[in-house]
Amino acid sequence: MEWIELIVHTTTAGSEPVSDILMESGASGTMIEDKADIPDPSKPHGIWEIIDPKLLDTMPEDVLVHAWFENNAGLPARIEKIRNSLAALSFSCEDAGSLQLDTVSVNDESWKDTWKKYYKPFYAGRHLLIKPTWEPCEPRPGDLVIEIDPGMAFGSGTHETTGMCLSLLEEIIRGGEEIIDVGTGSGILAIGAALLGAGHVLAVDIDPDAVKVADENVRHNHVDNIVSVQQGNLLDRVDDVCDICVANIISDVIISFAAPLKEHIRPGGLFLCSGIVSVRADEVAEALTGAGYEILRRETKGEWTAFLSRRN
């Protein structure tokens, strides 16, 4: 199927009325691209610390409202109606910008599959092989294969933080450990831990969509007899304790729950955390030592840092 993408140049004030016009005209969906919605990445906080600092430089100065329509016989009339509605909006909203309308042809199949050519099998550590479900490959003897579909996953393993966690898990799992994966996302770390020999893995995430995806991936990789996926906040709803806790999340969360998390780690147990922007690594290290952990390893890859620590 061929689609037509309409792009309207407007302002923050005009973006919602423009989106309404497009949806009322039969758009399958709209997306607002507004530079003002992106917090300053030089002042990281919460989830925004994972934003690429170059993102603001690549975004257009205009606010762009994107909409998608099926390319059929009725589309020209719809576009003409949209132009008239935009002209009327220019009189009723003084700060709506130019309201310039651009059109782009989009082929549904090529649009859906183009990203796949950039995702190929790769190794995390010595023997963990992460591959997309559609990509054939020949594992080496002793390889442990994790199949993940990045199109449906919250994390595919290519990110430096996930790669560091998998590599460290390969080093520290000896077999039979009880492990908790906090903020499991796609479940990739839980699956890796199970394949490496963990006795039981509890994969926890507060996001119901992540829980659904993780459960699907766990079943697809045939480790559902080892990995349990649960929705909720570890500190509020889970009583389990573990030998190894892994958390590939963000600095603020790691800092805030480093101390209360100790109740879920056995004395002498390990805490592996990543998702830490390197400029905040010292803050995380201070929180870990202040909470009574001994830092065993500090690794950095690109702009990201991971810590392996032990509960004293």
Description of the molecule:
This protein is an alpha/beta fold and 312 residues long. The chain has 2 domains: 2-113, 2-Layer Sandwich (Alpha-Beta Plaits), CATH 3.30.70; 156-311, Rossmann fold (3-Layer(aba) Sandwich). The chain is 32% helix and 29% strand. It contains 10 helices and 14 strands. It has helices spanning 12-24, 55-58, 75-92, 108-113, 160-172, 188-195, 208-220, 234-237, 251-261, 281-290; strands at residues 2-10, 30-33, 63-70, 101-107, 122-124, 128-131, 144-147, 178-182, 200-205, 227-231, 242-248, 265-277, 293-301, 304-311. It has a 7-stranded mixed β-sheet with strand order 10-9-8-11-12-14-13, with helices on both faces. It has a 4-stranded antiparallel β-sheet with strand order 2-3-1-4. A 3-stranded mixed β-sheet has the order 5-6-7. Strand 13 (293-301) and strand 14 (304-311) form a beta hairpin. Helix 1 (12-24) runs antiparallel to helix 3 (75-92), helix 5 packs parallel to helix 6 (188-195) and helix 9 (251-261) runs parallel beside helix 10. The longest helix has 18 residues, at 75-92. The N and C termini lie far apart (60 Å).
Q: What's the total count of β strands?
A: 14
Largest sheet: 7 strands, mixed
User: Helix and strand succession?
Assistant: EHEHEHEHEEEHEHEHEHEHEHEE
Global morphology: elongated
User: What would you report as the Rg, rounded to the nearest angstrom?
Assistant: 24 Å
Low-confidence parts: 44-53
Averaged pLDDT, please?
84
CATH class of the largest domain: Alpha Beta
The CATH H-level superfamily of the largest domain is Vaccinia Virus protein VP39
**How many domain regions?**
2
What's the number of helices? 10
Helix content: 25-40%
Class computed from helices, strands and strand pairing: alpha/beta
Stated plainly, the CATH topology of the largest domain is called Rossmann fold
Distance between the termini: 60 Å
In percent, how much strand structure appears in the residues? 25-35%
Strand order of the largest sheet: 10-9-8-11-12-14-13
CATH architecture tag of the largest domain:
3-Layer(aba) Sandwich
